[in-house]
Design a protein that fits this description.
Low-confidence stretches: 262-288
Structural class: alpha/beta
Shape: globular
Strand order of the largest sheet: 6-7-8-3-9-10
Mean pLDDT: 89
Order of helices and strands: EEEHEEHEHHHEHEHEEHH
Distance between the termini: 49 Å
Largest sheet: 6 strands, mixed
Number of helices: 9
Number of strands: 10
Bound molecules: adenosine-5'-diphosphate, magnesium ion
């Protein structure tokens, strides 16, 4: 793809995106379009640039080169109303980033009231609806510390949904969970996908990617190496690097000496302080 313009019907258009930290080039000429209602799973070894790519979509990272368009807005245009566009993008992190000192309900209503200007009654109604969607309505009065990791992540998803996003970004949403809690979060995400939510999901859950993704993108070394339908990329990968990665992930016990790939990461999360519901960039603890 040589054009630097957005694709007319894509909700996310990434064009020739490059990102360097110092002189380390982490993303290299990434081109990617994601369409309304599509579920795109991004897979790849630790350090391949998946998180950075996701964070460039809502400009939590400032791209070094190239363009990112979201819902027709050029995120990389200095004039863009960045907060306005970000409001339309839900983001769910590996660490759940709930406010520990606020109840589940308050975690869901605070940004609705302060950012969207909803009344208390309306924000509670929206919150309850979304807590029901993730099976957590019975915990509206609980505090995050009283919940399991899986429950906290479902609340975090409900919080995101309460802002009525046009699309959702997930960065390894189940990587911090005990194995027995992964399924409940994936089930919620699967429901969301079948409701038609546009989703970009960084994940190591190959079974989920295979079942739920419309498209799988394999990244390595800052490049998109291969992409296509899951049956193709996961079931019949064409590139050697994709094959080697999948072999590692799908057969974790057959680790070979000198294998270049790190184990599927519980990568240390950057920006994992309690992220303000008002601005995903800030950590200004909101007290209430
Ligand atoms: N803020 C940062 N400063 C310096 N290097 C970074 C920063 N964020 C990420 N990196 C580096 O960029 C590369 C890609 O990281 P990341 O996007 O987190 O990969 P992934 O999510 O695929 O594991 C890694 O080598 C990582 O160390
Ligand atoms: Mg990552």
């Amino acid at each position: 793809m040589t054009t630097t313009e957005q694709s007319a019907d894509a909700i996310i258009s990434i064009r020739q995106l490059g990102k360097s930290f110092g002189h380390v080039e982490v993303l290299k000429s990434i081109d990617l379009d994601i369409y309304l209602g599509e579920v795109v799973c991004v897979i790849g070894p630790s350090g391949s640039g998946k998180t950075t790519l996701l964070r460039c979509v809502n400009l939590l990272e400032q791209p070094t080169s190239g363009k990112v368009f979201v819902a027709g807005n050029e995120m990389t245009d200095p004039e863009v109303d960045i907060d306005g566009v970000r409001r339309r993008i839900g983001m769910v992190f590996q660490q759940f980033n709930l406010f520990p000192h606020l109840s589940v309900m308050r975690n869901l209503t605070i940004a609705q009231q302060r950012v969207l200007g909803r009344s208390k009654a309306e924000s509670i109604e929206v919150a309850l609806h979304n807590l029901e969607r993730v099976g957590m309505a019975h915990k509206e009065g609980a505090y995050p510390g009283q919940l399991s990791g899986g429950q906290q992540q479902r609340v975090a998803i409900a919080r995101s949904l309460s802002m009525n996003p046009d699309l959702m970004l997930f960065d390894e949403p189940t990587s911090a969970l005990d194995p027995e809690l992964v399924g409940e979060v994936l089930a919620v995400m699967k429901d969301l996908a079948s409701d038609g939510m546009t989703m970009m999901v960084v994940t190591h859950e190959m079974a989920f990617a295979r079942e739920v993704a419309d498209r799988v993108v394999f990244m390595d070394g800052g490049y998109i190496v291969e992409q296509g339908p899951p049956d193709q990329v996961i079931g019949d990968p064409q590139e050697e690097r994709t094959k080697a990665f999948l072999d590692r992930v799908l057969n974790p016990n057959s680790v070979k000496e000198g294998d270049e790939f790190a184990a599927p990461p519980a990568a240390p999360e950057r920006g994992s302080l309690p992220v303000s519901a008002l601005d995903p960039n800030s950590t200004n603890g909101i007290s209430d």
